[in-house]
Structure to design on (56 residues):
């Protein structure tokens, strides 16, 4: 097993958990990950959502 395999899964879960908190009760709550990324691209007030979605 290489280093990336050891580190990535827990880090990804953190992004997923943060994303779920950020999108709770928003228009993004029922969207796919791709839809969230597309819907938040280039929107200054949605940067935290975009960043977490892109890393998830």
């Amino acid at each position: 097993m290489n280093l990336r395999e050891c580190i990535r899964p827990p880090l990804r879960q953190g992004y997923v958990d943060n994303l779920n908190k950020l999108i709770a009760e928003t228009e993004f709550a029922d969207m796919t990950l791709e839809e969230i990324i597309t819907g938040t691209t280039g929107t200054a007030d949605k940067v935290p959502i975009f960043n977490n979605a892109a890393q998830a």
The CA atoms of residues 7 and 20 lie 21 Å apart. The chain has a mean pLDDT of 87. The helical segments are 3-23, 33-40, 47-55.
